[in-house]
Amino acid sequence: MFRTYLLPVQAAVTLFPLVVMLIMVPVAIHGYRRRGRAGGWPVVVFYSFVFYLIAALLQTVMPLPARTSAHCSAARYAETPQLEPFDFYARIASASGGDWSVSTLTGLTVTWTSVLNALLLLPLGMFLRYYLRQGLLPSSVLAFATSLFFEATQYTGLWFIYACPYRQFNVDDLILNTGGAVVGWLLAVPLTSFLPAINPDRERVRYGGRVTVTRRLVAFVTNLAGWLVTWVLATGLLAVITGSSTGRRYAFAVGSALGLVWFWLLPALFSADPGKRILLLRIVRTDTRPAGFLRITLRAWVAYTPLALLWLSAAQYTRDALFPTPFGRLLPYAAVLATAALWGWTPLMALLRRDSRAPHERISGTVTLAVSGRPRRSGSDAPPVPQQNASAAEQRHPDLVVRPLPDGHRMALHSESPKASGSEEPETPDRADAPGGV
Residue 49 contacts by C-beta under 8 Å, 6 or more apart in sequence? Predict the structure, then answer.
């Protein structure tokens, strides 16, 4: 019997890395915006929560029966839902013959089925209280809704993939699942009292002003993905309206025009490209004054030269754009050289010297600045960040320059002195001019 319950866990172990790859960047973005960093204990708790949800869902659908013509006749018992509450008690009493001793109950399959149904959502109640800070009533409602989703998945034959249900809809499962979640909610405090407290406001004060390599990399990936998705949607819509041949003909031109707007005009006008804006970053001079149109233009054209050359090389390869023979032949080599010089050389120097800024920042005289914390709306229930927290941060980092932004955010920029290269987290540079990003 227990082998049946272990099979979904094995499947969850296989599926979990794929899910992590899909949600890694959105989770990092949420972490930077809410807590000022993408790592830490809350991320460990979140991914364990994701793994648990995958395993719990697979427990309700696996093992999958073979889709044969005889399937519905073999699983006919599942077509009639069991709607009598607490029927599991009567079945245990009948199977045990009135003997409620532990030795007798542990030998009954119906006992273990009931216990495992109660344990299925017990971790959910703990996660809801410890990680999401939900009260008893919201947690009970969410647990009941989760159990109802599982039962509906079973009764519809995995949402009509199968011609008939292969597991029975059982009201006792709703009761046991929800009851187990309530027990988990009650046990959350004593069982998690030894775990670190999850306090996003405190983390945001401590880490929100840091511009690490990881933060800049996430901003760059987000920016690049946003451009690619927008280009695909634009060219796809053009192809639908005018025809596939027309969409193909103008795909290169649309992508180039969109790239100019996305990577140059938007940063030059708003001091941040979409990726940086999402990650609460912006571009300023080294003295935190506004960078200006010309400086950001110079920065953008230097920083994205490798991307432009790669784009032109791809267009030359697909023959969406044809360039003169010497230029066209040299494009791939120029793209590789520019990528190594502008995107590869700087991180290498940072590892060796720890005080090297990216070429596009040195040439343009700009740095990337962090907007620490989320904007507070009027009437918000979120408690304001006390001023003494900011003072303590400045005392811990005497080389930190803090200036107010026009929109009320706080900005943090580390000086370029050797002392500024230190960090409470040695694995990521605690510098506003962390190298290697754009």
Answer: 127, 131
Determine which helix (DSSP H) or strand (DSSP E) holds 413, and give its type and residue range.
Answer: strand 410-414
> Do 108 and 139 form a contact (C-beta atoms < 8 A)?
no
Question: Over the chain, what is the mean pLDDT?
Answer: 80
Closest CA to 286 of 423, 420, 393: 420
pLDDT of amino acid 359? 83
Tokens of 47: 């991914």
- From residue 251, how far is each of 60, 260, 322 by CA, in Å? 45, 14, 14
pTM: 0.73
Sorted by sequence, the CB contacts under 8 Å of residue 26 that are 6+ apart come out as: none
The residues, any chain, with a CB within 8 Å of residue 397's CB and separated by 6 or more, are: 414
Distance CA 200, CA 203 (A): 5
Beta strands in 297-380, from DSSP E residues, in sequence order = 366-372
Dihedral (C-alpha) 325, 331, 333, 338: value to the nearest 10 degrees?
150
Residue 140 has pLDDT above 90, yes or no: yes
The residue type of 34 is R
